[in-house]
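Record 1 of the preview.
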Amino acid sequence: MSVIAPTAIDLPALNAEFADLAYEDRFHMLRERLNDRQFVVSTSAGAQASVMLHLVTKTLPEAPIVFIDTGYHFAETYQYLDELRERFDANIQIYSPLITAARQEALWGKRWEGDAEELEKYGLINKVEPMNRALKDLGADTWLSGVRRAHSSGRAQRDFFEQQKGTLKVFPILDWSDDDMANYMTIHDLPYHPLVAKGYVSIGDRHSTRPLEEGMTAEDTRFNGVKRECGLHEPSANADFQI
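->
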C-alpha cells in the first residue's frame, strides 16, 4: 500500500475504504497507510474501555494512550484504568487540568450544574485543554478514539476519519453495535468497568453520571439531561484555549 502524506489525505476515500474492512484490517491499514504519522489513543476508562485498549495494544503497541484525569472520576474508574494498564502493558499517559477541582469550585462553583454554556466551559478546562496539551507534548497528529455511533444520537452521522485543525481523528470501531462490543469482550475475556454491574452504562465524571433506570436511555444518564458531547469530540475541541 502507498503511504498517505499528512498534507494529502483524501478523507472521503479513506472513509469509504475503512467502512468495508474488518476490524483487524482497519488497524493494519492505519499502520501501513499512515505510517508516517504519530498516533495517540484516548481512553475514558469507561464501561467497555478494555475493547479499544486490547485492539490498540495488539496492533499499535507503541502508541501512547491518554487518560484525562478531570479530578472527578469514580474511584472504580482509577482502579479499572490500573487494571487495564497492567493487563495490556499499556503505555498510559495521564493528563490533568491546569486548575485543580477545588480551585475551580471556589472560583466558579459547580459548573456541571449549570446550562450548556457552563458545561462547555467545564469541558474546555477539564477535558479539551488537557487533551490538546497531550497532543502537543506527544507530537501527535493522529488521534484514535473508541467513539461509537451507538453511544448517542449526536454521533450517528460521524465519519471514521475527521480532520480537526492539524489533527486527524480516527474512530476505528465507530460502527460497532453494543452486541459487537459484548461479543468481542466475551471472546477475549475482557473486563467491564466495575460500575457496569451496578447499572451504569455510560461512565464519566461522578457528579454527572448516574445508573440507568427504568424508562431512561443511555443518553439520559449524562449531563443532567443536556444531550451533548463530553467536550472532546465537539467541533471546538481543538480550538486554541487559555485559562
